[in-house]
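thoughts on these tokens:
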Amino acid sequence: MFARLKVFFANQKIKWFGRFFYYLLILLLLFFMYGFNDASAGAYIYNDF
């Protein structure tokens, strides 16, 4: 059973899709965290630099 899982996760397509969904999840989470700010949300972080 463990050998079958190793072969499954060693597949290049599985690795690519895994990384794709991992980074897509990060981008979506960042969008939902910072994308829906209204006028009272405060200043943009880089305005004072």
